[in-house]
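Supplementary Text 2. Reproducibility record for the structural model of the 135-residue chain.

All settings were left at their defaults, and a single model was retained for analysis rather than an ensemble. We include the record here because the model underlies the residue-level annotations in Supplementary Table 4.
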Amino acid sequence: MIKTEHYLDVRYYETDQMGIVHHSNYIRYFECGRTDMLKKLGLPIERIEEAGVMLPVISVECKYKVPAKLGDTLKIVSVIEQIPRARLVIGTEIYNPAGQLVCSGEVQLGFIDSKTRRPVRCPQMLLGIFEEHIQ
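Retained model, structure tokens:
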């Protein structure tokens, strides 16, 4: 299993007039967590794309528990439990400063060739790094 933590401050423009984070922003927070995870693994997204691979989102699931608020510093926990083959599944949990679970969910990413836009299996450069950390 690969597990990383990323911290993010809730910004004013992400909230409504009550100071509550709008539900659509949690999907962006998921992206911040997974982008940070890939960077920590030595796979920044720009390196993956330079290698001719793109990671389109196939599906997103998010279950909301308690609202995040303006001024909160959120802890975004991203987890990869399985070595990817045709798709990469990243689970995410977001916590508020009190340690309460704000939301949880997962994102499934596919692998496509950036030139042909056709699906491909997980490229070896990524697979090797995932195997190294998950074994």
